[in-house]
Amino acid sequence: MDFSDNSEFPIDLERLIPDAIAQALSDEDSHSLLMWLKNKLPEYTDPAVKQEIPPDMYQPLAAHLGLAIWNALPLPGNNFRPRPLSFPGRNEPCLCGSGRKYKHCCAGVPKGPPLDTLDIWPLVLEQLPPSQRRRALDQHKVPPDSLITAALDCTDEQRYDEVLELLEPLFAGSLRKPRPVVAMGLQLLCDAYDELGQAKNKMVLLARISAEAPASPLRAGALQRLTSIHLDREDTVEARQAFERAMRDAPDDPSLSCLEIQLLAAEERWEQAQLRAHFWLRRLQRSDFTREEIEPIIEFLEGAKEDPKTALEKFLGPKEDLSADIQELLKWIEIVIRRPLPSYRAVGEADVTGEDRNQDLAQHLQDMGVPKQEVLEALNDLEEQSSGLTEGGDTGPDSDGDLASQDDAGQILQPPKALRVLEQDWHALAGLTKPFGTADLPMDDWQGWEPGAAQRWQEFLAHHPEAGDSLDIIDDLITAILAYPEGMSATLVFRGALPLLQRADAIIQQAVEGRESAHLSWLCLENRPVLRCLVRLFQITAYSLEDEDESERLFSWLLSLNPRDNHGMRVEAMNLYLRRGQNEAAVNLAQRFPDDLLVEIRYGLVLALYRLNGARSAQQAAEAAISEFPLVAKYLIRSSVSRPWISPYGVEHGGKDQAWIYRETMREQWK
Prior knowledge:
By secondary structure, the protein is mostly helical. It has helices at residues 13-27, 30-40, 58-72, 117-127, 130-138, 144-156, 160-167, 182-196, 199-212, 217-232, 236-249, 255-266, 270-285, 295-304, 308-316, 324-336, 355-368, 372-386, 417-430, 453-463, 471-482, 490-512, 528-543, 548-561, 569-579, 583-592, 599-613, 615-628, 630-637, 656-670, and strands at 345-348, 411-414.
């Protein structure tokens, strides 16, 4: 409630009421509150009228305000319910303590605005200590209307973690009889998930609501949200199914009109979009909505009935303007992904070692665009390993140190001979270097998208569709898409990167099929395009498609192919295992990396052990985790933590940024 709109009342209620609530909650004593108000009220008086208020006016004002606040206040000591007091009757003693009858004393003094418990609750939540706040939320003591008001305030102030704390309990129980107001809570909660990068939690919630809730504004809202998500992914089939269910649930919802025009546009059914715009205009003009309530929608539909494409650009913003060069690449990808899979061979590293091989390998890697220094370092490491000089060593992202046990026998995926010649020609023409280490992009600035520059390498692709058979070239093309100057849009993800990476996945699976254990060491630079393709596919699957089952397949396979896990797939694995309650799998994973310095592994082991066998079994792991990352434990305990500054260059080991990120990602599992 906005208490500032009381211009005729001489007290600044916007400042007074929160302070009075804090005072009342400190001891839950009505007399103490009235005395506090009597003493403090002059401090909250509007300076413009302070001189006009007689001193004896403050006592009755304090009494009236105190009683109004007290009677609306949910008290923790009364199971979060008010303990109201009655106003005196006209002939009863006045509550100000003057001894006069109420009708002859304070009855004529302004009482201030009426207060309701629904309005007071958001302010109470701000003042409650964490334990009481958690109890009120978990026991569903806070009315949904008040929760949503509080969540709106948090959203305005970008306190998204508090939005989750407030609204997630609304959806924790049965969804069989959802109140209409909860539908608004869903939108706020989904927006907060988006801001915090918790797409998985959002999708789980939307899927659960669409499956469990009855036909209602809540389910319709979830289905509308799913429709938009599928449209963003350019999946018009799933979008159509979700939209039609939403239409059945809420056929008169004006927002569905805009969504339907978007869907028809994605399906390129422009004439139908015009017809449906006419239909919705007539329908909304006969509805109970006023013109003012749906003015933006009416304006959009009036434009869409004439020119839906222009109306959508105006309503949603300009459609993505892809250059002719990137569109040519997308067309080429559509063609090559239909080609039969090439026959790669998984051969043992030991079968292709030796001085001559190292010289050939060095030249080949430099032709691939691998930086010369990285080639020399990798060959040196190979030579040391082959002579038995290394035992353990560095466990950084570009080493193969003894971070996890594995077979020593590694393999290399060799392409057909014809592809090797093609790859050399490609690298000489494209001039695209490989990313350094586990980075996404090369360190140098590739000029391949500059005007005129793309024509040369695109002509090469047009003349050689078999380039789509090469894992090395696919790796380069994904890097090129990532380096596109206009950024990584949904179109480039779902029409460009994803189909190429799915083809790479199929090629790799075919190459290692029948092998009980295939190991593609990251140390071997020839394997890096292979592993990088799988990592990139995982990233799209996990964060764009939000497909947990396929994500689990990919990170499990990557951990099997490259057991020393240079890309940190074990972090994704640990977090997913804990979210799914697969605690034994989480313990087994942590035991593969006993000296790991990743916070997710250290604290994940603690949580998994605690769930399986209680606090005593987790004590040693907890002591080690807290010793290495003390801030994480502190941040997990707090009900809210301010977002620290996060460097674009990475997090500080043991720092506030690292602790905050872990808290935001996994605190729900620790509750």
